[in-house]
Structure formats: structure tokens, C-alpha cells
Amino acid sequence: MPPVRATGQHRSRMGQGVLTAAFPRLDGVLHAECVPLERIAAAAGTPTFVYSASLVRERFHALDEALAAVPHRIHYTLKANSNRAVLGVLRALGSGVDVVSGGELFRARAAGFAGADIIFGGVGKTDDELREALSAGVALINAESEAEVRAIGRIAGELGVEARVSLRVNPEVTVEAAHHYIKTGERGHKFGIPYDDALHVAHVAAALPRVALAGLDMHLGSMLSRAEPYRAGAERLAELCAQIRAAGITTLRHLDVGGGLSVRYADEVPLDPAEFARAVIPIVQATGLELIVEPGRFIVGNAGILMSRVLYRKHSGGKDYAVADAGMTELIRPSYYNAHHRIEAVRRVDGTQLLNVVGPVCESGDFLALDRPMDDVAPGDLLAVFDAGAYGYVMSSNYNGRRRPAEVLVDGDRFAVVTARESYDDLVRHEVPHPDWRS
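User: That's the sequence. What structure does it adopt?
Assistant: C-alpha cells below.
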């Protein structure tokens, strides 16, 4: 079935291109592609995350086509959304993946990705995780310190394998981001090898018998809306590449500029993939290396909603509240990052009201929106919390004994529950009822 196209306020734009309307309003009712959200709620309950396969595909193709002028590979980053069904959509498109833990490596393999499709990153890899990565034959391990490079060499020797290593370098580029927690490439951050130390670490890697120094990597942060930081960071990596080659090290094959491309939540102007490509492609072409990019939020952020039901309305201290069955345990971004997520009634209602949309968790910080002019919803009404495809379910928790929600994937006129809602038994599944006491 061809993708549904939206009209009016539901049209989504990236640069000059019109994107698939993942969640159009048809006859007053919000849909996921061609499926009414009310139908999904009846089948799966609430709260539930709902993802659009069509928009995932369209975002992937938009970035892939923008980078067509240079040899490249897109490695989707699992930390944004690691749902197996979503990963299946991306694997079918030819995507690779980026993982940052042994658990994410396991999830990637379970979704069908071969070791050669996987990059293993992360600032604090354990010896066990490095063994798992090397045993899986991952394409690259992004090393973040000299100590890690040496650990990789030691473990590769124990296993009798060659480790393909890329150095994650901190380019020390100042960026603008919506929150300081999502900046990762400025001087003094915990991530990456300090730029001035990177040439020395390259020498160390090249001298280790079981290590092949195959690439250079950076990640500036998240929600970056300007191309200039990517250009500046890529230039820093290219300069380092030239220094490494001048030192006689000729094994570099990849230049990884990370991810972090922004999406629209409210009134942001996202970075157009074409503009991103114009910033980095000439620099990468001059090096002769393959370009790697690691998008996460860009691919899935706008492709998901959190569906919740209003439980109660109340008035307190001059404020009006809508108490919903979803809160910070399902979507922590509003509380943790002060993030904005558009919220609408699934079925159009008359009138608007200044509302605080809060959840059932026993915390004052449990909210989805504060002092928000929005639909004047009543108990029983369904809500759609938009742009929840990234850093939603993956950051959910069982705090207050809450069961983690269901996940649903929609593709055209069909949908499927792809993660079942947790049961009460799941909450105690790993607890030991009769501990084996030792002394």
C-alpha cells in the first residue's frame, strides 16, 4: 500500500521534501498510517508505543540518498529504540547497527544482524563485552581510550582473533544542543580520546599484534540542527588521518562522523540531510575513506507515539490536571530533559484548556506536559504523545511496580503487537524467593 499523505498541519517537512504522514487525522480520528489508533488501543490496551514502519523506511532512504556521492554505510544506533521488529525493518533496508553494550549486541544478533553489520561502541566496555564483540566478529570496536585499546589487544590475543578497531576521538568541537546532557564532543567530556592524545593512541594500536587500526570515529552529541559542527569535527578527523598516514600507518578504512541529526518536536528546524551531506562528503572524499554515520533519533524519533488514556480530571491550586495512565515510567524525557512532546486527543474534542498532563507515579516530577494549551480532554479519552519513537520504551522503568508498556508496529493497513505488555509475574521473575545464604 502506498504511504498515506497528510494535509494541512499534519504535513511533516524535512528540508524541502514532504515526508510520510505517519500519524494523520482522518475524519477527526488520529491514525497510525492507515490504522485508527482507537483500534490499536482496543487490541493492545494503554499505555502503548506505536511505531510507523513507513516513516522509518522513508527516513533511512532520505539519509542514504543524501550520502550517495560517497561510499558509505548507515549504522542505526540501538540506544534510540532497540525493538526487534523495528530492527527488522532496518535490516531489510541494508542498515548496519551501532551497539553500546553486551545486551544491545545480543539484541542485534537476535534481530538477525551478522557480526559484520555491527559496530560496538560505548565508553565503559567490560572484558566480557569485549570478548562477546570479538567472538561475534563485529565490524569495528570503537575504542575510547589507550587503556581500552590495550585491553582489546590482550583479549584478541587470548581468543586468537584480529580486532578491527576504530578510535573514537573527542574532536573538542563546541555544539548547540537542547540540553547539556546530550552534548558528547566538547573538551573535557567523558567520551572519546582527547584530540591531542589520539595520534599517540593510534601508534599504540598499530603496534599491537592482534589489533588492526581500521578507522576514526567521533560523536558530537544529539539533536544537532547545524551542519557546521559536523564539518569542523570531520576536518579534525581528516587532519588526524593525515598525521597517522604520515607516520606510516596505512590501515585506515573508515571515517565515522557519528549521529545526532535533529528532528522536530515543537518549533525546531531540523538539519536537512542534504545540508549534512554537503558539510561532510567533500572532507571524507578527500581522505578516500568509507563514510560511516550512526543515526538513531533521526530514523525513529518522529516515527513513534505513546498512546495513553485519561483517568481523571482535577483542579488544584488554580491549575487543571489531566491524570493519564502513562507518565515518567513510560516516557521520562519531559521530566529528565525538560523535553517537549506534542499531545493531542486521538478523537477530536471540542475546546481547549490550559492543562498539566501528569501520570500515576508518586513523584512531583511525573509529568508529560505542564501548563500546556491543548485539547480539553475528559476521563476515558485517548491521548497521543507524539515523537516518542526514540528514547521512549528503551528508557522506561518498573518504578512504583509499573509494568512496562506494549509496543505495536504499523505497516500500511496492518498492525501487530511486537512487544507484549509486562505481567505482574514479570516484575518478580528474577527475584530469588528462597535465597541461598552463604558465609
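The first strand starts at residue 13 and ends at 14.
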